[in-house]
């Protein structure tokens, strides 16, 4: 999905993409602490390198998943 690449988005757009995708912090998060179970504590923080334009969102997700998916 090239429309989500860093080169095709502004920081504000990337922040909105993350907030909308996670539905956290936008009023729909019920503070279930589920993110902490997977070692992310705050998923917004996990995707901050994407928001800041440092690392693609797909790379962050792949690295996160690699810790839990084997084989």
What does this protein look like?
- The protein has 71 residues and is mostly helical.
- It has one domain (2-66).
- 48% of the residues lie in helices and 0% in strands.
- The protein has 5 helices and no strands.
- The chain has helices at residues 11-22, 34-37, 43-46, 48-51, 57-66.
- The radius of gyration is 13 Å and the shape is globular.
Q: Could you write a compact summary of the structure shown?
A:
The radius of gyration is 13 Å and the shape is globular.
CA-atom Rg in angstroms: 13 Å
Q: How many structural domains can be distinguished in the coordinates?
A: 1
Query: What is the overall silhouette?
Result: globular
Helix content: 40-55%
Structural descriptors:
single chain, 71 residues, mainly alpha
Structural topology:
Layout: H1 11-22, H2 34-37, H3 43-46, H4 48-51, H5 57-66
């Amino acid at each position: 999905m090239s429309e989500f690449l860093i080169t095709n988005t502004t920081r504000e757009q990337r922040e909105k993409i993350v907030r909308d995708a996670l539905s956290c912090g936008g009023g729909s998060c019920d503070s279930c602490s589920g993110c902490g179970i997977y070692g992310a504590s705050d998923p917004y923080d996990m995707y901050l390198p994407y928001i800041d334009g440092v690392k693609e969102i797909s790379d962050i997700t792949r690295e996160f998943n690699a810790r839990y998916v084997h084989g």
